[in-house]
Amino acid sequence: MSEIACSRAPIDPSRLQAMMDELSTFGGGPDGSMTRLALSKEDGAARDWLGRWFARNSFAQAVDAIGNQFGSLSMAGANAPVVMVGSHIDSQPNGGRFDGALGVVAACEAVLAVSERFKAENKLPLCNFQVVNWTNEEGARFQPSLLGSSVFAGATELKWALDRKDGDGVTVRQSLAEIGYAGKDKVAIPSALIELHIEGDKALFEAGETFGIFTRFWGATKYRLAFLGRQAHTGATPMAERKDAVLGAAYLIADLKQIAGEHGLDLHTSVGRLEVFPNSPNTVPSEAVLFIELRSGSPDVLAEAERKMKLRVEAAAEKAGVTYQVRAVDRRKAGRFAEGLIALAERTAATHGEAARHLDTIGGHDAVAMSGVCPSVVLAVRSRDGVIHHPTEFTSAPDQALGTQVLADMLYAIASEGLQAVDPSGTAA
Predict the structure, then answer these.
(1) Which domains does the chain have, with CATH numbers?
(2) Is the distance from CB of 58 to CB of 52 less than 8 angstroms?
(3) Looking at residue 428, what is its pLDDT?
(4) Per DSSP, what are the bridge partners of residue 130?
(5) What 3-state class would DSSP assign to 228?
(6) How much is the pLDDT for 429?
(7) Residue 267: helix, strand or coil by DSSP?
(8) Quick count: other Cβ atoms within 10 Å of Cβ 357?
């Protein structure tokens, strides 16, 4: 790309692509799919690969107690501010190769490019850099999502997080030990955090644009709710005597769709996972556990949706002749990312001829968890057809390079001008 040649800290697109290709071998399938669940053997192998990259490029690795993996490049001295960049490398089951992984690889390449530029100029930066790979961002194996970043930010208690269990009863604590990432390092909150991610929506793709900035993030309320019935024979038991837990779940799932329709584009609802016991084709289910999500950019809409959902739960249980039990509730507030970082991303993108469209992120990102403790932002590059969490998820090599180059130039600006580049008013935390 011609823009890269005139950048302040030119990246190496071929080096970036080679890293993406290598990382994709850990859990990748021949159809483009990716199954690299948090703290699985595939995740452990990918972490080892990243650690070897850190060592080859003189990044000092640290791993904290929840398994967050850090690679630090200290060029400015021990007391200098730290700018953190990165994302996550865990995936959904049968997901895509770019969600999260691009953000980690881009962080490595961007920091390396900036360090090479400063060495070529024979000067010292005004900040240090830290690449991060967060633990269990996806929430596919362990719930809730954003687990590692939430512990790091102090929003979630460490012991509680380590005790989370997957569907087989294996804890986070056990899994960290099994793959060798039960760390003990203490890592400080950075001065700023920048995350690059695929958009996972169609706005950029349909507009024919490459680059955007997530300026606002939606809130989420997540329930794990069980309908409780009575196990019985599907043949011998009269219909009127059945207490079918899945029937209660079915009523509620339909009601949740209706609730979303009552709020138009301001609310998303889903039941993405259903666990049935005993899960036999000729047994009336005695238990159905629903993983329910309500998402909105409006706290008022989210609260109203939850109120409606509770009423529908009662009605569904009564209609099916079963009872119910709330087993867990997780909440994430809606909010905005740091204005100073948004402005810096706009200025930097403009030097590459990019409009930097402002976007909402409905899905969660680790930068959301971190936004409460340091200035944070998520940059976005387009996804073909808006696909995410699917094997056909795709972001082209030129688009990956463009996003990584904008990231590198933002880091170069901060390293050259200090935190003044992030917040010219001087009010940044």
Answers:
(1) 2-218+334-421 (3.40.630.10), 219-332 (3.30.70.360)
(2) no
(3) 47
(4) 72, 84
(5) strand
(6) 42
(7) coil
(8) 18
Compute the 3-state secondary structure of the chain and give helix, strand, coil in percent, each to the nearest 5: 40, 25, 40
Residue by residue, DSSP assigns 162-191 as HT-B-TTS-BHHHHHHHHT-------PPPS
- Residue 12 CA to residue 28 CA, distance in Å, equals 24
Task: Note whether 179 and 41 are within 8 A (CB).
Answer: yes
Query: Which pLDDT tens digit goes with each residue over 308-343?
Result: 999 999 999 999 999 999 999 999 889 999 999 999
Tokens of 237: 């038991």
What is the Cα Rg of the chain in Å?
23
Task: Indicate the pLDDT class of residue 425, thresholds 50, 70 and 90.
Answer: low
Which residues have a Cβ under 8 Å from the Cβ of 201 and sit 6 or more positions away? Answer: 359, 362, 383, 386, 388
Burial annotation 153-162 (CB, 10 A radius, 16+ → b, else e): beebeeeebb
Helix axes 397-417, 101-121, angle to 10 degrees: 50
Q: How far is CA 248 from CA 11, 41, 284, 286, 329, in A?
A: 55, 37, 12, 11, 19
Pairing of strands 219-228, 128-134: unpaired
Closest to 106 measured CA to CA, from 2, 43, 17, 201: 17
CA distances to 9, 98, 359, 385 from 393, rounded to whole Å, are 29, 7, 19, 9
| pLDDT tens figures, 88-103 | 999 999 999 999 999 9
Of the candidates 277, 6, 22, the one whose C-alpha atom is nearest the C-alpha of residue 117 is 6
**Token pair for 234:** 């599907």
The answer to whether 337 and 216 have CB atoms below 8 angstroms apart is yes
- Measured CA to CA, the distance from residue 336 to residue 406 in angstroms comes to 21
Report the sign of the C-alpha dihedral through residues 70, 373, 36, 178, in that order: positive
Produce one character per residue of 310-347: b if its CB has 16 or more CB atoms within 10 Å, e if not: eebbeebbeebebebeeeeebebebeebbbbbbbbbee
Residues 83, 130 contacting (CB under 8 angstroms): yes
The pLDDT confidence band at residue 5, using thresholds 50, 70 and 90, is very low
Q: Say how many residues make up the chain.
A: 429
Beta strand segments in 150-253, E: 192-198, 211-217, 219-228, 232-233
Helices (DSSP H) in 6-126: which residue ranges? 13-23, 41-56, 101-121
Q: Are 13 and 21 in contact (CB under 8 A)?
A: no
